[in-house]
Amino acid sequence: MSSLIALQDDSSPVWLPRLAAHGGPRFLQIADALQAAVSAGSLKPGDRLPPQRRLAALLDVDLTTITRAYDEARRRHLLEGRGARGTYVAAPKVELTSILDLSMNTPPPPEGVDFDDLLKQGLSQVLMRADSELLMTYHLGGGSDSDRKAGARWLEPMFGRLDSGHVVVCPGAQAAIAALILALSEPGDVILAEPTSYPGLRAAATQFGRRIIAVEADRHGMMPEMLEQACRQHQPALVYLNPTLQNPTAITMGEQRRKELAAIAKRCNARIIEDDPYWLLADAPPPPIATLAPDRAYYISTLSKCLTPGLRVAFVLIRDPHERERFLVALRSFALMVAPLTAALATQWILDGSADGLMEGVRKEACLRHRMAGDILAGRYNGAGDGLHVWLDLPGYWSPSQFARAADSEGIAVTPAEAFATGATNSNSSGSVNAIRISLGSIKDRGRLQAGLQRLSHLLARRPESLSAVV
């Protein structure tokens, strides 16, 4: 993200971005810098901007670039023209002062991808090739032949060529997790998981009367010796793992650790739910655990975290036909099917290559945002440079819930570590974690994200007692 240089033009401040060679189109860098300055209060309503020709000369870019930057800034309601008097910072609109939601893991909007056009083209192809009546009626659960073939194609980077009959299509990863719990465990059974893990697991397990026992983890993920001890002590029905860009810690488990855990699962006759929504966003991730223990692991990959949340489609790899049927029976008890139109759109995008293009754009945008977060939150940033979130260690004078409340008072939503606690640990350690998760994708404009991260950085440096007098 470009930094800003303050210059002086008569008596009015002029803000210029220092353009980054690999920061994307220059007109967007300029517009993002303007938005960041407005959001941070460095540029205020009524401030006059330099004429376009002068700004082009100062930045050593062509006039068209500045024109496009100003047009983009006007589209964002940042600037207003006043005829011969020039261009000025506009009065703030609602979107500049609304809450910045950094609490929800969603893919960032990829630069250079016209999502509206992609959606229109995809739906047009679906409606042209499919019977509209079939798109509006009930379907058997598990997906059509075409949907399962698309699922097998989606999973090829992880597993190579697959039998599409081993793939089940589900209405999202949460539904897949819930159905696996119902199909493979009984009320009162134990599910092992890491001390901080995806909250949806805890919600489903609690609803179905299963117990979660936390197994200690280190910087490489769940510890093998602790898993083996917990398996022998509790005879768990399931072990839940999120091994790639783990939610929330952003840890990617190495291949050796995966091999060790797979070996323990085989030795202890344990079954693994491998929830892997971020594998395709990661930089050179190791092979899934399901490739190491294919008869012990059930693999879940969702489109919602790689493409767009509205595409509620997940693919589950279940090789055993009897277990696949049990899974489908469990799934039908609460989610009969994926919405046929949604499934058809997902299939169309996967088979025509649109999904790959969209995902590559998401991946590039996520990397840009991680670099921004690393620059602003230097010293406490815990991220792999990819994925959708950052796990931020807090200074000792902040607790996670306290910091989340303080951030909320600043108009920023983040998620405290307590939201990810899975339950009692399998040891005497307290398991408390002093961190928050920051999601980088839910804010559309990079400039607003930059301003929000800067506000969080300033908040980190302030002790809670310095806020006590603020009302």
TrEMBL record:
Q: What is this protein called?
A: PLP-dependent aminotransferase family protein
Answer whether the UniProt record assigns the keyword Chaperone to this protein. Answer: no
Q: Where is the HTH gntR-type domain?
A: 24-92
**Source species, please?**
Diaphorobacter ruginosibacter
What protein family does this chain belong to? In the C-terminal section; belongs to the class-I pyridoxal-phosphate-dependent aminotransferase family.
Q: Entry's InterPro entries?
A: Aminotransferase_I/II_large (IPR004839), HTH_trans_reg/aminotransferase (IPR051446), PyrdxlP-dep_Trfase (IPR015424), PyrdxlP-dep_Trfase_major (IPR015421), Tscrpt_reg_HTH_GntR (IPR000524), WH-like_DNA-bd_sf (IPR036388), WH_DNA-bd_sf (IPR036390)
Q: Which UniProt keywords apply?
A: Aminotransferase, DNA-binding, Pyridoxal phosphate, Transcription, Transcription regulation, Transferase
* Matching Pfam families: Aminotran_1_2, GntR
